[in-house]
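Reader question, answered in our methods column.
A reader sent in the components of a multi-part assembly and asked whether the whole thing could be modeled at once rather than chain by chain. We filled in our standard form and ran it. Here is what they sent:
COMPLEX SIZE: two components
ENTRIES:
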Amino acid sequence: MPLLVVGSVAFDSVETPEHRRDSVLGGSAVYFSYAAGYFTPVRLVGVVGDDWPQEHTELLNQRSIDTSGLQVTKGKKTFRWRGKYLPNMNDRETLEVHLNVFGDFDPVLSEEHRRSKFLFLANGSPRVQLKVLDQAIGASLAVADTMDLWIREEHDELMQLFQRIDGLVLNDAEAKLLTDDENLVRAGHKICKMGPKFVVIKKGEHGAMFFSDYETYVLPAFPTERVVDPTGAGDSFAGGMMGYLAEKKSFDPVTLKKAMAYGIVTASYTVEDFSLDRLRTIERKDLDLRLDQYERMLSF
Amino acid sequence: MPLLVVGSVAFDSVETPEHRRDSVLGGSAVYFSYAAGYFTPVRLVGVVGDDWPQEHTELLNQRSIDTSGLQVTKGKKTFRWRGKYLPNMNDRETLEVHLNVFGDFDPVLSEEHRRSKFLFLANGSPRVQLKVLDQAIGASLAVADTMDLWIREEHDELMQLFQRIDGLVLNDAEAKLLTDDENLVRAGHKICKMGPKFVVIKKGEHGAMFFSDYETYVLPAFPTERVVDPTGAGDSFAGGMMGYLAEKKSFDPVTLKKAMAYGIVTASYTVEDFSLDRLRTIERKDLDLRLDQYERMLSF
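And here is the structure of the entire assembly that came back:
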């Protein structure tokens, strides 16, 4: 079942203690859609400048991603981010952000896109996320991501958004900031009370937690020695999760849990190289194989 | 099957953001033996001063812990530790350490204790741990804990110890310090190469990882809202783990994994109150019940 994602498309420059890459393909909607593409047809809505190379679009199309919603703005530049990872490869510092064309992003969905049953609102201001929700009249499952900037600067709009979405995905630091609570279990429940029917807290190398009125659980990350670049891990996680839900056309508790596991496994591949470089080398069967290993790891 | 533990017995003074307790029962061997006592008879070897109240001994005896190896040194004081937890309840600062009688601890095992099949060398210098190993001629499984102090100050003795033990339990910060590697998966494998047949890295609120030449896995912590005092969580984890192994008279991979799970569940109770206050209120059936919940949590 088609899955619509609206979010950032970017050029990332990444420094890690051992490597450095400049201007590689990135952005929340890119990582999300590439990861989700293993499971279901994906429709990507985003904006780029005229510095965007056609080969990036082709790469996305090869993974059955519909890029008809990728708007190219002439005379402007694509969103650029530069960051540096600390030796623990979990914490990072943002060195430069140039919103460029993403700063004026005002997505208008096509008639077909408006009817998508599964919707993911990736990184973007709650103001823009609300505008997309207004248009996405066919969405039976709407899940959003958010970040520290919006928690601090568009708090009211974020609270409005929470009243209207089914699920929220955010990371541990953001959950603590949003609730002013250092205990993630309490934080998760507090966020559920703000509106979303379920909340997923991503913990990077420590996995992810799920919260609803009926369930609380935590799943660890898939252990890997090869952490080359964690950029996009959270968005790949969300992509794997939402992709599996759309494939199954369901979001009942059992499917949601397996979707979380697929999200974790998908993200475990993303971190093994820069940009989409590792994901490009794998097929769906590799995800299934690692999911089997993961399931065995958690059985006792 | 009897399980022998040699380690510290202490009075702890603990400050958390919300509470404070002075001079409560603590120490690695105390938490370990109380946790292990749910599974198997435990023999505790340690030392206290004449400020040690008889009621503490009685509390341990009630959980079928043999305290014949708990030496009381007249005219001296029991080991005291004072610490303060940061708001995240994971990191802590040591405010005061008075080794007192523990500074001269030179354990001499009784004939019966020397024949124990299962041995845990809790917090103590590798020098003392090696001396205990020399005496524990009957041990078919010897597992040790260690800490930053010994990694820094008795590195050579620690390396000797690693050649002679079957398993090592340490926390994430210690594993990184010992290997100079921030990736815990790589760190775990590096420590295996230093000698122990298996290594367990404790990650506090994020669970624990297991490493051997044949297996690598991670299990999350049991999620709890009620984290009152994390002191002793690591020792309770080790106690639950080793207690289960001694109960099953086995340490094959399948039993080890279930033992890890029991360790995690036991520690999840410890943190729910100060000292042994929460553990005192539960029975073995409570551990089994939470283990069932934990197992279901990890199934998808």
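What stands out: Chain A touches chain B at residues 87-89, 182-186, 189, 203, 205-207, 209, 216-221, 223-225, 227, 254, 257-258, 260-261, 295, 297-300 (CB under 8 Å). The first helix of chain A runs from residue 28 to 36.
Send us your own complexes using the same form.
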